[in-house]
Fold this protein.
Amino acid sequence: MALLPAEFAELEPFGDWVLPTERERYAKRLASSMAELQAFYDAAFPLLGRANAYLEGFGLDNLPDPERNLLLLMMSLVLVSFPVEVWSQPRVPDSGAAYLDLVVEPKV
Amino acid sequence: MPHFAKPAEGSWTQHYPELSTAPVDYTDSIDPAYYAAEKEAIFKRTWLHVGRAEQVPKTGSFFTKELAVADTSLIIVRGRDGEIRAFHNMCRHRGNKLVWNDFPGAEVKGTCRQFTCKYHAWRYSLAGELTYVQQEEEFFGLDKADYGLKSVRCEVWEGFIFVNLDPAALPLADYLGEFGKGIEGYPFGEMTEVFTYRAEINANWKLFIDAFAEFYHAPILHMKQAVKDEADKLARVGYEALHYELHQPHGMVSSWGGMSPPKDLNMVKPIERVLRSGLFGPWDKPDVAGLDELPAAVNPARHRSWGIDSFHFFPNFMLLLWAPGWYLTYDYWPTGVGRHIFEASLYFVPAKTAAERLAHELAAVTFKEYGLQDANTLEATQRMLGSRVVSEFPLCDQELLLRALHKVTADYVKEYRDGAAAR
């Protein structure tokens, strides 16, 4: 069963990044190695612009499941961009035990 | 030589002579007796921001607010007449907490027709009247009219709900003063897509306001968030605000912000280039009325490089308006002299497309990455202040709002203590 729209089949191997809440996405980032984060980023980042253009044709309120999954996957990419583009580690440097929980989040 | 003009007195700080330029004593952030006085002098007497009108959209919508700093819990509810009211969250029968689920200390929200106590089923209307007493005939001359919920002053400004535990307090609009009037008309009501972050911080509440009331730290603490060349330039140049203004007890700083969109795309990270968003928010302004002609108090210097205004409403509420058309709020809820709960909410005009939604997501995530660095640094500050090795610290002109915060706090505490001594 495909998770994503057929046009984005090449991202199916990264389907475990389709997570409905920021808390789950952030936990997965922290639990991943840099190699895993880099592999996901390298696969998804080149498709980000195309995904935006593709999703433009759908209303945000009633996204079909594959399109919703694509959006959630790209939300994970946003989170993963920080370790890959700036930190070189999954966690924010010098953040120690500090946390910020997202307790209210717009629905997708 | 400053990059931006300063007042004729030579500095922003000297423009407000009541502030002095002497080092500031931070014992106010570690002394338990001082914190106890702050609770009485400030948090039980000033207007406190507890939420937005959108959180109680219809009749019976409610949320509870834990106010450890004022030793109470409140219910905020919209009544049948559309009014938003606040009550102490306490049953009048034997004092049980009226509204809670599972954990008595946790905040809850929902919608109801009335409030029913879990203990003996006493019931209260949305307006706080006691409407039902279980086995009423067993009581002794009990008149239900005498046992309504204890109400708390509750007023709404531009959709922001405030409470005040002091029945004699001035009206909210008077308290918010010049800044309140000067911001009215900003399209807050259009910005209903909300991200709320929450954390318990092991630092005094004033230390986090300190951190967010100056941008002097940004080029240094957050250096790694910018691309290398940009980070080097920011650190070399340092930080200067466009404008500072105090209308005590409140204050504001107005800042430039060249990153939305950036002058040069190479200044920003790859994800920002694709999503057209970043720390300063989405680069593309939403299409709503009220963003082109900003209210008078916003961008007071009318500077073309304007990026953000940060208003501090004493004691614990900050409101940040960003040039690209979104806003951010900070609330700092003390739970002890060295602890508080920090809440930050980002408000956007609701996304219509996935691209807009992802632009908001990037702004929110960027905020979190910065915020984690800020939050952790505060614990390091609190620990060393606690050593009392040094108590007095020099503050620079870009730290004017910190100086004002500690001064105003001290003024409230002194007035309260003097009054208590006279009683």
